[in-house]
Amino acid sequence: MPKKIILDCDPGHDDAVAIMLAIASDDIDLLGITCVGGNATLENTKLNALKICSLLNRKDIPIYAGSDKPLIYDLVTAEHVHGKSGLDTDGEPINLDPSHRIEEMSAIDFIINECKNAEEPIYLCPTGPLTNIALCLQKDPSIKDKIKEIVLMGGAALCLGNITPAAEFNIYVDPHAANVVFNSGIEITMMGLDVTHKVNVNDEIINSIKTNNNKASVFFADLMEFYSRFHRELYETGDCPLHDPCVIAYLIDNEIFKGRKVHVQVEENSDLTRGETVVDWLGVKKLNPNCNVITEADSTRFFKILKKELAKLN
Ligand code: RIB
Ligand code: CA
Fold first, then answer.
1. What is the mean pLDDT of residues 18-28?
2. What's the pLDDT score for residue 125?
3. What is the Cα–Cα distance from 163 to 156, expressed in whole angstroms?
4. Which of 52, 143, 256, 264 has CB 3.0 to 4.6 Å from 115, enough for a Cys bridge?
């Protein structure tokens, strides 16, 4: 049976690939997309989600607006990576289907309602700051029993941060929300920078996927051409980590990934280390493990699945 998921995201180039993978896969039943401020403002992330679904002719997929700012801090965005719109490319502009609009219901109420009404527990898949997920858990803690697992992109165990030396962007933007999630008692799998930096796109992979010769694969290539620029400069390599699709790939074939269940807590206040995921990899504090931290991936197997799934789209 396909896994029922809600994808909570801040599109974002890599979020866009996660959305396409979730839509394409027969193993996933995408109940809806919820947007949060992160890579770009909420105005832009919700517009980008509409654009992506318009491109795929999938206006049947409901899109909801969540929080435009973190629980406590001001929003920090990532135009330096994703451009002003949050989804800049040099390719053809996307014709937005005017009939596909953001749903009236808030993302928070959508997630709560879907959890409460679900016959079987569902998966929450956040690939942006965790504000929406935290707000749901604070508004109605009873939904914990209807969440099978939270598979999130964020954090880092043994790897350097990417927005500060200590912190990964999603967790940095809203560390308070991250601790609400990590302390929730819900089954959590964390796709942090340790693993996403082992799933790298490069020119060879981009060109290979482009040979699918369909709109979605050409869009993938346009996205990656732009998105790679920042990473190639920062990491001085032709490789570029494809963070968010790791969340969806994990639900399609979790054998791609390996990790360890450990205790994770997030620094909320320090100017120096705000947003650091403090991962007790060796269990020295003897605290109850609260998160399956993924650190290894079979990149070849990942991209074989990505290419096959993107080929199924229009
Ligand atoms: O640090 C990478 C993460 O932050 C990704 O989810 C990217 O889309 C941004 O949200
Ligand atoms: Ca993201």
1. 98
2. 99
3. 12
4. 143
pLDDT of res. 32? 98
Q: Find all residues with CB under 8 Å of 150, minimum gap 6, and list them.
A: 123, 124, 125, 126, 133, 181, 184, 186, 187, 188, 189
Structure tokens at 35: 């947007």
pLDDT band at 95 (very low <50, low <70, confident <90, very high): confident
For ligand 1, atom 1, name the residue with the nearest CA: 169
For residues 307 and 209, is the Cβ–Cβ distance under 8 A? yes
Taking the model in full, what pTM does it have? 0.98
| CA of 296 relative to ligand 2 center, distance in Å | 20
Extract the tokens encoding 309.
């799934």
User: Which tokens hold the place of 81?
Assistant: 């990576």
Lining residues, ligand 1, CB within 6 Å: 10, 12, 14-15, 38-39, 127-128, 153, 162, 168-170, 243-244
Atom number of ligand 1 nearest to Cα 153 = 6
Residue 235, pLDDT above cutoff 90: no
Q: What is the pLDDT of residues 148-160, one digit of tens each?
A: 999 999 999 999 9
Between strands 3-9 and 122-126, the pairing is parallel
- Secondary structure class of 3 (helix, strand, coil): strand
Going by C-beta distance under 8 Å and a sequence separation of 6 or more, which residues neighbour residue 9? 15, 18, 19, 33, 34, 35, 36, 45, 49, 126, 127, 128, 244
pLDDT recorded at residue 92: 81
pLDDT in tens, 167-198: 999 999 999 999 999 999 999 999 999 999 99
* HSE (side-chain half, CA atoms, 13 Å) at 32: 22
Domain 3-310 in CATH 3.40.1190.10? The answer is no
Q: Tokens 């679904």, residue?
A: 53
Q: Answer for the pair 9, 40: CB distance below 8 angstroms, yes or no.
A: no
**Does 263 qualify as catalytic in the annotation?**
no
Q: Which of 169, 199, 240, 277 to mutate to test the pocket of ligand 1 (most atoms within 8 A of CB)?
A: 169
